[in-house]
Amino acid sequence: MAWNEPGGKGNPNDPWGNNNRGNKNRGNQPPDLDDALKQLMDKINGLFGKGNGNNNNGGNSGSGAGGFFGIAAAILVVMLAFNSFYTLDEQERGVVLRLGKYLKTESPGLHFKVPLVDQVIPVNTTKVREAEIKERMLTEDENIVEVELNAQYRVADPIAFALRVELPERTLLSAAESALRHEVGSAAMDPILTTGRAVLAEKVQIRLQDYLDRYQTGMVLTNVNIKDARPPAQVKAAFDDVQKAKQDKERFINEAEAYANAVVPEARGRAQRQLEEASAYKDRIVARAEGEAARFNNLYSEYKKAPAVTRERLYIEAMSDVYTNTSKVLVDVKGGNNMMYLPLDKLMQNLPAAKGEGGSLSTGDISRLTDQVLNEVRTRQNSTGNTTRREGR
């Protein structure tokens, strides 16, 4: 028989607890919802050690309130147990506060804390963080530049980072701006915009680290870089013209230095060469004079031994020098009215082809040439004499 079939007796399988109720007034109607809720609350109270209570309304409300507080207490216990343990990874350090006062610093791993009493502030001590600022600043020569600065840092002291300063990142930005303004205000614009950025970044890093240490921020700078430095957009065209003029100036200076470096050594080389040539000429003249003096002394000694032979030899050598430098000779004949012209170049063509070293005439050639000259002189004297006698007759 089904639990909801009509009958005189209640069905023991009725889940709604209607076994003791009569059905003469309900017939086939469903069970009461209030009764079902009441039975559910009784079962929950039984789970937490509460009795079913009496049948009046006061007992039912007390049982419901007790079950609710029991559930809340169980949830609270679970939450407290869950919040009593925490984990720190390898990059973090935990700053533990008990009732707002510093207690200790925990290392990586699983740790216990007293719920609602202890507070843990995890701080990453190995991550390299960055901060950037971009500001317009006044230089020492009263020019305005736009500077972009990038600062990289890490947390070296987690206690100071978490407790000493309320907003460490904002403090870092303010200190970086102050240090940058101090260094830019102490430098001219040209080095900042051209070759002095590295020096400027180094000075800013030293000053900024000093500020951070004095403020006890617990931060250590790893790198400071000047990303960009440029004039304001309103004066960029004029600034570009100035830069071009400076570049032209540097180019002209470099060209002048290159020209000087090329001309000065060349001039010095020519001067040194002339000095060397003069020194060599001096040595040559002195040596030749000394040689001539020694030759004259030797010649004088030989002359004293044989004057006639030495005199003839000297005459022949002198005539050799004279004939070597000229090809035409004019001879004034004693007792005659005419001057004879001797074409030595024609006479030398009749000589044998053999010559001495360097194309000069040998002693034999000079002797033969001398003989030809004397014969030519005698011939012309004879012809001149005959002509004179004929005219006298």
Automatic annotation (TrEMBL):
GO cellular component: membrane
Molecular function (Gene Ontology), one example: peptidase activity
Membrane topology: Single-pass membrane protein
Membrane-crossing residue ranges in chain numbering: 65-88
Principal localisation: membrane
Domain of life: Bacteria
Chain's role: HflC and HflK could encode or regulate a protease.
Residue ranges of the region described as Disordered: 1-34
Keywords: Coiled coil, Hydrolase, Membrane, Protease, Transmembrane, Transmembrane helix
GO biological process: proteolysis
Compartments it resides in: Membrane
Every Band domain range: 83-243
Similarity comment: family membership: Belongs to the band 7/mec-2 family. HflK subfamily.
Regions of compositional bias (Low complexity) in chain numbering: 11-31
PANTHER family reported for this sequence: MODULATOR OF FTSH PROTEASE HFLK, STOMATIN-LIKE PROTEIN 2, MITOCHONDRIAL
Protein name as it appears in the record: Protein HflK
Assembly: HflC and HflK may interact to form a multimeric complex.
Coiled-coil segments: 235-262
InterPro entries referenced in this protein's UniProt entry, alphabetically: Band7/mec-2_domain (IPR050710), Band_7 (IPR001107), Band_7/SPFH_dom_sf (IPR036013), HflK (IPR010201), Membrane_HflK_N (IPR020980), Stomatin_HflK_fam (IPR001972)
